[in-house]
Amino acid sequence: MQSEAVLQRHLLIWQDPPPWPFLWRGLLPLLALLLAAAFAVGPVARQWIEATVQREMRAQLDAAGEGWVHLAVSGQSVTLSGEAPTADAGSRALALARAATCPTWTGRRLCAVSVSGNFTLAPPVTAAVTAAAAALAAPLPAVTPASARSCERSLAGLLRRRQIDFKFGSAAIATRSAPLLERLARQVQDCPGTIRVEGFTDNVGPAAANEALSTARAAAVREALIARGVPAQRLESLGFGSTHPVASNRSARGRARNRRIEFHVELDPT
Fold it and tell me: Residues 94, 66: contact at Cβ < 8 Å?
């Protein structure tokens, strides 16, 4: 008996894969380019570019001695302004700004696409200003021992009736001492030479802290007199802490006397 092998047929069907995974992978680079373009035109990139241009151009102008120039940056467009000290200073500043470079991914490149200027010329020095400067530069009259003693007696007389008051443990001058400072400033103006403002404290607390406090208080009085019209070059200040008491520190009254400000005229060296 003859047998026959029966083979069952299987139908093979080829199906193409869905297009979406391949399409999505192809869109990724395009999406990255779109995001980069959005960042480039967005406010964050603009602010970063403007900050870089401002910083680099400011540094290069200052290094060239053009600190008077003011910068207004919008993207990569820059406007220079300010009061030019000389007629050609504006042109020099424009040339420096147009040549200024900033760091980029491909090396240093020009910072600005366009640079414009809007300058004003500084007013000429008048005769009155020149005379005032000459008066300040003129040497002061020679200080004699007699004129120094007279000045110191006058200032000590003002301070004998009332001392300059400070806030507790501070170099801040109390507002009630303003009238006294006005009188002291007028008197110092009439004194010859350079006046040294000296500060002193009592012996309460560490010596180093007392010296620092007396130094700060003397400096505060100096600044107060300058604010009232005394030329700064005529005033010096120095603090001595508790090293030169004028009364006993054992009583509250004595300690109050030791917390004081004194004025002394510096004699010309001979």
Answer: no
